[in-house]
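Question (not urgent): is this output format expected?
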Amino acid sequence: MRFAMPRLPSIKLPRYFLKPSPKMAAAVIEPTAHQLAMMDSLADVASWAKLSGPIDHPGSMAGSLFKLMGVLPDLSESGDGWQDLCTFANIDPEDFNAELQTWQYADMQDSEQADGMNVDPEGYTPRLSVRPKPADKGYARAAFNAARIRAKIIPSRADKKTESDYKLLLEETAVTTAKDVAASNAADKVTAMKDKVKLAEVVDVTLGAEIPLMPDSEFEIMWNRFRKIILRPPDEDEAPSQQQLTALSHLLLVMSCYVDFAQWCAHHFRNLKAFKCAGVVPGPRDSNGLQTYIQQEYKGPPDYSFWWAAWRVFQAAMIMAGACTPTYLKRYAKMIRNYNAQFTDAAGTNPLWAFLYQCDNRYRREHLPRMLRAANLRLNRLMLRSPNGEAKLYHELIDGSGEEVRRQITLGIFICP
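Got this back:
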């Protein structure tokens, strides 16, 4: 009777039994960062990898490996241990693995038992060769891997990041960056709100714009310009603030230098900005086209002393901004002072001060920008004819304002009691 053997089911082995996984293939020990720093020669590499024997003897474990790979270490005083290490590290990994399969070295204990036949002074005999054990091949691979890491041919696993670690690092970096950006934006917003100049609070209530405060370095340059021209620092009661200089510099860029003396004054942050002035001022024209004058109270310097205090700050600011030289500014101020003195009574009061200030105010606010634009047109024509021509516009306008102011003052005096 014949029995049929049962057919065993085929078993499909997992892939990791058939072929080493990348993790298993990469499982070669590596030196630490401190150990790497101490490796400067093949002797250091062999000592760390537990390759016994002198590296220059062809029968030792270390020497036979290096000889097999074609590296002959030079241990003389003129030898370069680092060059030998780099030569060993530059071997192609495939060539190294192929040659490693034929590696053999001499066993010292066997040679001692061979009745001293063919034994060299070091105790090794090439005749009695043994095949390396698997652990010895592991030492050889570790030495080769350490040399390649030390020579910067391959990175250390400690320097690598796995894909998951890299993604986690990116996420953490993104979160940190987002927090930093948010904090920076909040700080910039606070700084921007803090370092803004409201033109309505500094120069003119009719201007609603807010401009960034000029940097401290630019403010220092303007301050030094005044010292260079006047040969002294500005007095306490004539020194403009950083906010005032910022506002005036902005106005100069848009063809204007008008500032309201009801607000513009020394220490403008702590002084009242609602000075009141009452008197006769120019009104609308009548049906016949003649100018009328009315009694009115408005914001402005109440007398010449307040005007002079505001003008000193304005004069210093114009010099700091490089918009006008002191001569023309002083000439204009002298004209206002002479008119004020001319119509001041014995009690020291000028009943026409309100009208005088209105003439000054309207000239600086209405006529000066118009005259400046006309002067710019003249300047453009001048530069077309002479590219090197220069014109000091504000100088000419401030100096030429006398005729306009004199015309309005004379007309006012003629019709006012």
